Amino acid sequence: MLNFTLWDILSNLLLAARWTVLLSLIAFVSGGVAGLLLLVARVSPVPPLRIAAKLFIEVFQGTPLLMQLFIVFFALPLIGIETSAWTSAAVALTLFTAAYLAEIWRGCVEAVPKGQWEASASLAMTFPEQMRHVILPQALRIAVPPTVGFSVQVVKGTAVTSIIGFVEVTKAGTMITNATFQPFLVYGLVGLIYFALCYPLSLSAKALERKLNVAR
Amino acid sequence: MAYSFDFSSLLDYTPVLVDGVATTVALTAVSTVLGVALGIGGAAARTSSVKPLAVVVGAYVELIRNTPFLVQLFFIFFGLPSLGIRLAEWQAAVLAMVINLGAYSTEIIRAGIEATPKGQIEAGASLGMTGPQIFRYVVLGPAMAKIWPALTSQIVIVMLGSSVCSQIAAEELSFAANFIQSRNFRPFEVYFLATALYLALAVGLRWIFSLMGQRMFAKGVSRA
């Protein structure tokens, strides 16, 4: 029987962790863009847009990420799109991230005093101009700490993609466990890798929040 | 070729789905009660003047909040047996959910406790109350009232997160969905229905908690 050293296990886990990081980045960036569009729809003066955005957010916040993954994984082929675990994971995580970020940012937009909306409206600004020049720049400031905080949820969310066969650090952990029969060690290391990724993000979210509170 | 949807084939599996929903509800109910209890204890420890206790609880909270639930579950179910701790699927699922919710609710409840005005604690002390009495009768009630919405959201997240317990073969709703699609080869329909059921559970859970909140906290501090 082959023997696996601690370094064999750790190096393979770290290699797989690249895909965790990459998937997190893709989901966070594309989810951020989609979330911004969703946010604009959510606070727009057009009722159908508002309702559609609200429904989207409700559905994605009220259902498990695992089910969202399964549905994307099995539904895209039905409309003729070839899927791999990669694309399904990226699409599902993007939609999931967009829904949560839009809701977080909506809170930030609503924290902008109502007088700002009225003042900019009285300057005959249109809705896009109000958003671009008055509301978003102010909302952005308070949005930074919770957004960084949410990135932790994105990184942790990528673990679930292992279930549809995407090989990131959790899946690699399962595969290595099947070869080494050392689940305690392997899953312990997997947990530590996630911790090493997430804890700095949590800390910086907290630090940003403190800085913001002092500035105010 | 267009795909034709067929939800009727799911009817045969109604008992499986009902069982799955019941198990998800049971898992959530048990881990909510135990997890929130753990959270109250954790928050008390974290805000206590006993430094080592506060540090240990702080480490527990950070460790759990910065690792995925799925990995915690695998560690408990696959990892702990090598220490001689063998758990059934549902026991591992409950334990993981309690530990997870315990960490998050510790942090949430702590925020509520720290928002208690200092004068109230001093008022309690001047009435001759002991520390635990002050915590129980002065601090905890208003703290819970303040953080009730945040706690509700977290419990919904834990309920939704329980879907990954299917991976250790705990027979909850996702497990039922996996089982059915392996029989009738209609994955889209099954998962669509399961997702709708989760959504209904989430909406129902929020509704129950808002009713509970109204009943328990409507009269503000006069309780207890």
UniProtKB/TrEMBL annotation, chain B:
Compartments in which it is found: Cell inner membrane; Cell membrane
Does the keyword section mention Transport? Answer: yes
Source superkingdom: Bacteria
Q: Which UniProt keywords apply?
A: Cell membrane, Membrane, Transmembrane, Transmembrane helix, Transport
Q: Which coarse location class applies to the principal site listed for this UniProt protein?
A: membrane
Limits of the ABC transmembrane type-1 domain:
21-209
Q: Please report the name of this protein according to its UniProt entry.
A: Polar amino acid ABC transporter permease
Species this chain originates from: Azospirillum palustre
Lineage at the top is: Bacteria, Pseudomonadati, Pseudomonadota, Alphaproteobacteria, Rhodospirillales
